[in-house]
UniProtKB/TrEMBL annotation:
Alphabetic keyword roster: Signal
Signal peptide (UniProt feature, chain positions): 1-23
A Pfam family reported for this protein in Swiss-Prot or TrEMBL: ABC_sub_bind
Superkingdom, taxonomy of origin: Bacteria
Protein species of origin: Desulfocurvibacter africanus PCS
Record CDD domains: PBP1_ABC_unchar_transporter
InterPro entries referenced in this protein's UniProt entry, alphabetically: ABC_transpt-TYRBP-like, Peripla_BP_I
PANTHER family: ABC TRANSPORTER, SUBSTRATE-BINDING LIPOPROTEIN, ABC TRANSPORTER, SUBSTRATE-BINDING LIPOPROTEIN-RELATED
Tagged with keyword Manganese: no
Keyword presence, Signal: yes
Descriptive protein name: ABC-type uncharacterized transport system, periplasmic component
Length: 322
C-alpha cells in the first residue's frame, strides 16, 4: 500500500514543479522547439512540416532547432543530450527511437512524441489515457487488419505474406506481432525477413522471392529509408509490395491504407499549444491518434509488379497514381 501511495504522488509533484514554467511560457512571444527525428524520409518530414505550418497558423512564433539522427541510435542519444542545453520550451520527438532517446535524457521539459507506433510498449508512457510524466503526443499505430484485407483484394489467392522489418525497432516488433495475429485469421503464413540496418534491405527482399505471394512493409524507419531497393526486387520478380504509409506508394509500392502524416503533424501542433499556452501538462493529456485513413493506389507500380488493381479499390481510392 505504501508503494502505491508513493507512486501516485509522483505525477502530482511533477505538476506542481512544472506550474511556474508553464506560467512563464504563456507570456512568451517566441517559443523554442527542439526537434529530434530518427531519419529523414517523406512521412517523418511531413510530420515535422505539418507541425511547423500549423504552429504558425495558430498565431505562434517559434525558433526551431532541428536534429536528424540519420538512423543512428548513438547519434539520437547525443542529440537528446544536446537538446537539454538548448533549453527548449518543448521537445518534438518524431518516431520511436528518437522518442526513447529523448525520454531517457529529458525529464523536466515537455516532450511531444509523434509518429510512434506503440508508446506504451516502447516504455514512453504508462498508458494512452494517462501518460503519467512529461511525455504525451500521437501514435501512428497501423490498422493492420484493414491493410491485410486490402492486400487480399489485390492478391485473393495469397497464402504467404512476407514482411521486412528491423527487430531492433520497438515499433516494428509491435507491428510484426499484429501482422502475425491478423494473418492467422486469414489463414496466411507470415514470412519474416529481419534487418539490422538499411544495407541489409536488398538481401532481405531477395530472400522472400519464391517464398512470399506479397510483401508488406510497415512504418519501419530502417526499411523505409531503403524502400527503393525493395521496389527494384519486387519489380524484377513480379512480387507485389504493399506499405503502411502513403508516401511509400508515391515512391513505388502498390497501395496503402494509412494515416496522413502531415495532418498528424498539424494535430501535434495543437497539443503543443495546449501545453505552452493553455497550461496543460503532458502527464494528464491522453495520447491521440488519427481516425481518418486515406487509400493510395499506384497503378504503374501494380503493373510493374504483376498485379491488377481491382475496380472496387479504384472506386474508393483517395489518390490514384498513374
Amino acid at each position: 500500500m505504501k508503494r502505491f501511495i508513493a507512486l501516485t504522488l509522483l505525477p502530482v509533484l511533477g505538476l506542481l514543479s512544472a506550474a511556474p514554467a508553464m506560467a512563464q511560457n504563456q507570456a512568451k512571444q517566441t517559443y523554442t522547439v527542439s526537434v529530434t527525428q530518427i531519419v529523414e524520409h517523406p512521412s517523418l518530414d511531413a510530420v515535422r512540416q505539418g507541425f511547423m505550418d500549423e504552429f504558425k497558423a495558430l498565431g505562434l512564433d517559434a525558433k526551431y532547432n532541428v536534429h536528424s539522427a540519420q538512423g543512428n541510435i548513438a547519434t539520437a542519444n547525443q542529440i537528446a543530450s544536446q537538446m537539454l542545453g538548448e533549453e527548449p520550451d518543448v521537445v518534438l520527438a518524431i518516431a520511436t527511437p528518437t522518442a526513447q532517446a529523448a525520454a531517457q535524457k529529458i525529464k523536466n521539459i515537455p516532450i511531444l512524441i509523434t509518429a510512434v507506433t506503440d508508446p506504451v510498449g516502447a516504455g514512453l508512457v504508462k498508458s494512452l489515457q494517462a501518460p503519467g510524466a512529461n511525455i504525451t503526443g500521437m501514435t501512428d499505430r497501423s490498422p493492420v487488419d484493414r491493410q491485410l484485407a486490402l492486400i487480399k483484394e489485390f492478391v485473393p489467392g495469397a497464402k504467404r505474406l512476407g514482411i521486412i522489418y528491423n527487430a531492433g525497432e520497438a515499433n516494428s516488433v509491435t507491428t510484426f506481432g499484429q501482422v502475425k495475429a491478423e494473418a492467422a485469421k486469414l489463414g496466411w503464413t507470415v514470412m519474416p525477413a529481419t534487418v539490422a540496418n538499411s544495407a541489409g534491405v536488398t538481401q532481405a527482399a531477395k530472400s522472400l522471392v519464391g517464398k512470399a505471394d506479397a510483401i508488406y512493409v510497415g512504418t519501419d524507419n530502417t526499411v523505409i529509408t531503403a524502400l527503393e531497393a525493395i521496389i527494384k526486387v519486387c519489380q524484377q520478380n513480379k512480387l507485389p509490395l504493399f506499405s503502411a504509409d502513403n508516401d511509400s506508394v508515391k515512391r513505388g509500392a502498390v497501395a496503402a491504407l494509412a494515416v496522413d502524416y502531415y495532418r498528424m503533424g498539424k494535430q501535434t501542433a495543437h497539443m503543443a499549444k495546449r501545453i505552452l499556452v493553455d497550461g496543460a501538462t503532458p502527464a494528464t493529456m491522453p495520447v491521440e491518434d488519427l481516425q481518418e485513413l486515406e487509400l493510395y493506389v499506384n497503378k504503374g507500380a501494380a503493373k510493374a509488379m504483376g498485379v491488377n488493381v481491382p475496380q472496387a479499390v479504384l472506386s474508393r481510392a483517395d489518390k490514384i497514381i498513374e
